[in-house]
Design goal:
alpha/beta; Rossmann fold; eight-stranded mixed beta sheet; seven-stranded mixed beta sheet; 39 helices; about 15% strand; nucleotide-binding; RNA helicase activity; EC 3.6.4.13; hydrolase activity
Length: about 1150
């Protein structure tokens, strides 16, 4: 019973008592004489008189206890008014609720603050002009206005000399009424003194003299006063009252400064108080306050009407219509009817660019160069070619019968845009065509031609004037692709040539128009570059059809951004409404790994999918497995083991409710998950990267299966080139894999680094194409502000340029330094490229002009060093093998990325002396087997890569047959392997092509040319490079890695990782070959005394001597060789 006492553990029991808990029915008072009824008694009733008890249960001497009356039940209304028990809430829910309440209070506080700021503002009228110095006191009107402005701006009035200044409108209405009352009483007294007779009759009047008692004291008579007729119309009076009411609610801003110099002709007149001005009618018969204010307002000069702000862009365009370089040309009206589908017509009219059609077409007609800026989604890529087509461009009967050419930096964009424009114009594929490497749909009927910029550069080398084109559209110029920059520079010169020739004979040659389209406003490199365009071209800005996009940053920047992407995608799919998801990653390995994880967690098709849909899905997955191999230099540096979620559970166990729960509300996620049905909802996962087969790339543009959500995992190929429909959520890792080239060492590396702010904004914009969206950035805002550059570095500044220099010199551009690059590359890069061409024999060392050998090299659409291998490979029947080597090197390594399987596959086709010769065996076996898919699967080869090698073999064979008539060659699918002699010759051909990429074992150099140490394999064996002091190692994937390392090797690629520099595409080289293959890199010392020189020739003016050559910039000693010298005066010089 002790625990039922009221005072037992009183504080603890009070804290645990629930609001609706009743006291113990038989609680003991503990000597306090407290009855149970008093425990429920209201505190306000404690001081009232207690009711007498008929039955005191505390009286133990009472013989009989009479049962009391039952307590009546409380009515339903009172029960409802009682406080309801608080439902139980978990810690997680309570924290989310507190977070929501806190955000709601902050939002309300911000709203209130903005309302306060909107009602109070600083006016420029409070600033005094210097011309008012020495003017004296302010007029009454100026005092009132200044008082009003100071009060509005929150300035204290203690510094004013005249404190009696009252404002027109005061926030304190009572103070205004008191002032008005006092003023009226004062006037009433003045009127009473003037009218003594009325004062006697109205002594008992409370206010004024308007009331007069009649003979009947109960009914006072009202003396009506005749109002003076106002000269102001009723409409004007009404407008004034409305304006007055608006002014009382509005705040003054800087626009009020127009009234700073207002003059007042009645400044000398006595001023009435503010109350008098507010009084509706004066009693003494004077004009009303309203009339006086209106009369004063007549002298106020009317402010000038603010003119509509003109669009500078439109003014510039309209000006260009009269001042353009082609504005004097007279063009006949021409129109091509187009039969579009109604749905297509309705959709295209919603695009922003359609509203600028007239301005764009007038600008193109009157200018040779026009720049159009519009973000992706504005419709410029698909609609501008249609504008030109409808206006008659490319029509044989129009003034501009040439083709409409459109360049794209990527093949997938060229193909998809050609199909889209053809569908909108309702034209067949032979009229709206595309041409990419190894694939084309062009014909004699082609009117619009989509192509990659590399294709057009090849056409420029054959037809500099581009005579078959009437207009060129260079799209995605903001990406600053190497080919795009070169193309713009060359076309800027072609424009001048076409313009000059068209002035001589307009019927034969028409002027060329160029339209440069960019998704960003970074066009100053084009417009302000005087070497590019003498006259700045007009720039047309097109607004994008953009819905609002909410951008969410991570509080922390995780290292495992792939794992973070996986968690973010899962959360979006399970908690947020329908809408496609677009994820940006850096490379193929990351994309395929994340696709695999998502497909394991979520089904790809709904449970009720048909067998046809399941079969189509299986075929599509097989198509993705036939991934095209990455080109040379674009493969991943190392096969990175990406850790996805291995330690996620461990990390979550530490703090499940810290940052993740806080950010859920901020990022728009619901408090409650959608349940098991959402977790099991199908997710249609598709990869997208440039090396994916074209058929697999086009799947992202098709609608997903019904009942599924689309999720595209892509590289930066989805950033600007293509628009994927239905995307509402974007997950951005913020990184990209870019090529970096060291000019001094010649080392190329693909490094994953932060992208630019412009690219990040482009990625975020993908979520707002069809509706409002969200962008989830997997990095913090601090990283975005401090680590991200404003724009990406142009590709021309981070690429080797020997191919560019060779093509320019083939077009008779000898002074490459003076070429009008949009962004000039480093001079060191141009110097290194010209030096390499000299080593390869393509450029003369003295004149810097292209040689005949260089002209032959420029015929092939491959790198200059590979072109040299083709030209010198026409001996001993080696040309078919050289074509295979060159094709494989251009396309890239065809083996799978899986290292273990790759080593097993290579052993099947192994060559003991060269990685590149291994490719010959591989391609030969593939062709011998008929090029089947099963052969690729069995031997770990990429079907797409092998197909491209076959296509390039055919293309190079046709070029050789067309330009070298004496060579009889064909693509032989049953080609026999090379013999030993041919293998030696192929090794020398490879050495000649990579003559500037030679490495020597470090231990051999340290031994002074000796044999060096013996090694079982190349593991840990360092090599010295020609152009740098770094040590390089043979890559573990090389066939030479498992053998005794050769003394000297040639490599086709140098890649760098944080720990080592690796050589790939390694070929064993004999030192005696270098003197004959790389004469430009050799220097010779004095002739040896032994063997003795041998005099030859009839005139005894020549001799054969033995010398020790030194190779490369580090003068590596080579074995002694015989050379011929001739006498010139008293000196013996080397015979070339």
């Amino acid at each position: 019973m002790g625990k039922s006492r009221p005072r037992y553990n009183e504080k603890a029991r009070a804290s645990s008592r629930k609001p609706n808990q009743r006291p113990h029915p038989r609680a003991r008072d503990g000597g306090l004489n407290i009855r149970p009824e008093e425990l429920e008694q209201d505190p306000s009733e404690k001081n009232s008189t207690p009711k007498p008890l008929t039955n005191d249960i505390n009286d133990t001497n009472q013989l009989m206890i009479i049962p009391g009356e039952e307590k009546p039940e409380q009515p339903e209304e009172k029960k409802k008014s009682l406080p309801k028990p608080t439902p139980f809430m978990s810690k997680k829910k309570r924290k989310k609720l507190e977070k929501y309440i806190d955000q709601k209070l902050k939002k309300d506080a911000r709203t209130g603050l903005m309302e306060q700021l909107s009602t109070s503002g600083w006016s420029s009228e409070l600033l005094q002009s210097s011309k008012t110095i020495g003017r004296g006191r302010l007029t009454a009107r100026e005092k009132v206005r200044q008082a009003f402005l100071e009060d509005k701006a929150g300035v204290k009035e203690t510094n004013r000399d005249d404190d009696d200044i009252r404002l027109y409108v005061k926030n304190d209405q009572e103070a205004d009424l008191d002032a008005l009352k006092k003023e009226m009483e004062t006037k009433a007294k003045a009127v009473a003194k003037a009218n003594e007779e009325e004062e006697k009759a109205a002594k008992e009047a409370a206010v004024g003299s308007a009331l007069k008692q009649s003979d009947t004291p109960a009914m006072p008579l009202t003396k009506r006063k005749r109002k003076k007729k106002s000269l102001i119309p009723a409409a004007a009076r009404k407008r004034f009252k409305q304006r007055k009411g608006m002014e009382s609610d509005s705040s003054f801003d800087s626009s009020d400064s127009e009234y700073d110099n207002d003059s007042d002709d009645n400044d000398d007149k006595p001023r009435e108080s503010v109350a008098a001005l507010l009084e509706p009618e004066n009693i003494d018969g004077q004009p009303t306050a309203l009339e006086e204010v209106v009369e004063a307002a007549k002298n106020v000069p009317k402010p000038e009407l603010r003119k509509e702000e003109t669009d500078e862009v439109k003014v510039k365009i309209l000006k260009s219509l009269n001042e353009g370089d082609l504005s004097n040309d007279v063009a006949k009206p021409f129109y091509v009817p187009v039969n579009r589908l109604e749905s297509v017509q309705e959709a295209r009219l919603k695009l922003p660019v359609c509203g600028e059609e007239q301005v764009i077409m007038e600008a193109i007609r009157n200018n040779t160069v026009v720049i159009i800026c519009g973000e992706t989604g504005s419709g410029k890529t698909t609609q501008v070619p249609q504008f030109l087509y409808e206006a008659g461009w490319s029509h044989p009967d129009s003034d501009n019968p040439g083709l409409i050419g459109i360049t794209q930096p990527r093949r997938v964009a060229a193909v998809s845009m050609a199909k889209r424009v053809g569908h909108e114009l309702n034209l067949p594929g032979n009229e709206v065509s595309y041409q990419i490497r190894y694939d084309a749909t062009t014909s004699s009927k082609t009117r619009l031609k989509f192509m990659t910029d590399g294709v057009l550069l090849r056409e420029l080398s054959q037809d500099l004037l581009l005579t078959k084109y009437s207009v060129l559209i260079i799209d995605e110029a903001h990406e600053r692709n190497l080919n795009t920059d070169i193309l713009i520079g060359v076309v800027s010169r072609v424009l001048r040539l076409r313009a000059e020739l068209s002035r001589e004979d307009r019927k034969k040659i028409k002027p060329l128009r160029v339209v440069i389209m960019s998704a960003t406003l970074r066009v100053t490199d084009f417009t302000e570059n005087k070497t590019l365009f003498d006259k700045p071209p007009p720039v047309i800005n097109v607004d994008a059809r953009q819905f609002p996009v909410s951008v969410h940053f991570n509080k922390r920047t995780p290292d495992d951004y792939v794992g973070e992407s996986f968690k973010k995608i899962s959360k979006i799919h399970e908690r947020l409404p329908a809408g496609g998801i677009l994820v940006f990653l850096t490379g193929q390995n990351e994309i395929t790994h994340l696709c695999k994880l998502l497909r394991q967690k979520y089904p790809s098709l709904p449970p009720k999918a048909s067998q046809k849909e399941k079969k189509a899905e299986d075929q599509a997955n097989k198509l993705e497995s036939q991934t095209e191999n990455l080109p040379n230099g674009q493969a991943d540096i190392e096969n990175e083991d990406v850790d996805i979620g291995e330690n996620d559970e461990i990390e979550e166990d530490f703090d499940l409710e810290s940052d993740e729960d806080d950010t859920d509300i901020e990022e728009g996620f619901d408090d409650e998950e959608l349940g098991e049905s959402a977790r099991d909802a199908p997710l249609h996962v598709l990869p997208l990267y440039s090396m994916l087969p074209t058929e697999a790339q086009l799947r992202v543009f098709q609608p997903p299966p019904e009942g599924t959500r689309l999720c595209v995992i892509a590289t930066n190929v989805a950033e600007t080139s293509v628009t994927i429909p239905g995307i509402r959520y974007v997950v951005d890792c913020g990184k990209a894999k870019d090529r970096k080239f060291n000019v001094e060492t010649g080392i190329q590396s693909f490094e994953i680094d932060w992208t630019s702010k412009a690219s990040a904004d482009q990625r975020a914009g993908r979520a707002g194409r069809t509706q409002a969206g969200h962008c989830y950035r997997l990095f913090s805002s601090a990283v975005f502000d401090h680590e991200f550059e404003k724009f990406s570095l142009p590709e021309i500044k981070r690429m080797p340029l020997e191919g560019v220099v060779l093509n320019m010199k083939a077009m008779n551009i000898d002074q490459v330094v003076n070429f009008p690059f949009p962004t000039p590359p480093p001079r060191e890069s141009l110097y290194k490229a010209e030096k390499l061409l000299q080593y390869l024999g393509g450029v003369d060392k003295m004149t810097k002009h292209i040689t005949e050998f260089g002209e032959a090299m420029s015929l092939f659409p491959i790198a200059p060093r590979l072109a040299k291998m083709l030209i010198i490979g026409q001996q001993h029947g080696c040309l078919p093998y050289v074509i295979i080597m060159v094709s494989a090197l251009s396309v890239g390594n065809p083996f799978d990325h899986d290292e273990g399987q790759r080593q097993k596959n290579i052993m099947t086709f192994i060559s003991e002396t060269s990685d590149i010769l291994t490719l010959i065996t591989t391609v030969g076996a593939y062709e011998y087997a008929g090029g089947s898919d099963s052969f690729c699967r069995d031997h770990g080869l990429r079907q797409k890569a092998m197909t491209e090698i076959r296509q390039l073999r055919r293309q190079l064979t046709n070029i050789v047959a067309a330009n070298f008539p004496g060579v009889d060659i064909c693509v032989d699918p049953k080609l026999n392997p090379p013999n030993k002699k041919q293998v030696k010759i192929l090794q020398q051909i490879l050495t000649a092509g990579f003559i500037d990429s030679i490495a020597v074992r470090a231990d051999v150099l340290e031994a002074g040319g000796g044999k060096g140490a013996r090694h079982k394999n190349a593991s840990g064996v360092a090599y010295k490079l020609m152009w740098s002091n770094e040590d390089a190692f043979i890559h573990p994937t090389s066939v030479l890695y498992i053998q005794e390392p050769p003394v000297m090797v040639a490599y086709s690629e140098l890649t760098q990782t944080p720990n080592n520099t690796w050589m790939k595409g390694v070929t064993a080289v004999e030192s005696k070959w270098l003197c004959n293959l790389g004469k430009e890199l050799c220097t010779y010392g004095r002739p040896l005394n032994y063997p003795l020189p041998k005099i030859i020739g009839e005139k005894k003016d020549r001799r054969i001597v033995h010398v020790i050559p030194n190779f490369g910039p580090k003068d590596w000693p080579l074995p002694a060789i015989e050379v011929e010298q001739r006498r010139e005066g008293t000196r013996w010089v080397l015979t070339k």
